[in-house]
């Protein structure tokens, strides 16, 4: 199963566009996270993602991060020790079917 994306709302402020997107996660998480393209987020084939904020970032008791450099959604397990970095999840099924709501900022039209 692949991630699925549902555009909930879209808008712009000058030449900056935003998309409110529901992202349904799958059971194919790989180390480093799920890859996301500008086209997935409704910015079109030649669009650009400037950033993404995951609004319900504690889905299923996990922390969800946007890796801007690699354009990936990363999931971390919050059960680590105090003052320790939170490790990535390792069990592929932990996030299967979880729906995240995110706001993505970029340029392009899809």
Keywords for this structure?
three-stranded antiparallel β-sheet; about 110 residues; mainly beta; about 0% helix; four-stranded antiparallel β-sheet
Percent range of helical residues:
under 10%
Report the total helices. 0
Oligomer: single chain
Structural class computed from helices and strand pairing: mainly beta
In whole angstroms, the N-to-C terminal distance is 23 Å
Binned strand content: 35-45%
- Helix and strand succession? EEEEEEE
Tally the beta strands.
7
The parts where pLDDT drops under 50 for at least 5 residues are none
- Principal-axes shape call: elongated
Mean pLDDT: 87
Main beta sheet: 4 strands, antiparallel
CA radius of gyration: 14 Å
How do the strands of the widest beta sheet line up side by side?
1-2-7-4
Q: How does this structure look, described?
A:
This protein is mainly β. It contains no helices and 7 strands. The protein has strands at residues 4-13, 16-24, 34-35, 48-54, 62-67, 72-77, 99-107. Strands 1-2-7-4 form a 4-stranded antiparallel beta sheet, with no helix packed on it. A 3-stranded antiparallel beta sheet has the order 3-6-5, with no helix packed on it. The protein is elongated, with a radius of gyration of 14 Å. 25% of the residues are buried. The model has no long low-confidence stretch (mean pLDDT 87).
